[in-house]
Sequence to fold (126 residues):
Amino acid sequence: QVQLVESGGGLVPAGGSLRVSCTASGRTFSSYVMGWFRQAPGKEREFVASISQSGGVYYADSVKGRFIISRDNAKNTVSLQMNSLKLEDTADYYCAAEPGRPPNWVLTVAREYDYWGQGTEVTVSS
Fold:
């Protein structure tokens, strides 16, 4: 069983930056594919970014060039650095983990992840 706890959400002005993090339980964090998703009010959950065991990354087009996903296996943590934030980035942000995949895989579909955090709220103000 993997437990994920997000932190770092908050209120930020448009154009600003914010970093959200997710800490995972377990001794095999380095073997997880990790992902970030978000869900805005009234909308479906959507993919944001994913990082493979080997450090390969993949981003949604909407955040490419603005967001950076990273992982620290020594701290069992995955982070999402969000820059040049826009009003449309307002959402609850969720981290997700999926063990047991090949080292270079990233995952972009929510149903491919078995473990989810409770979410952290990010609000971008005008």
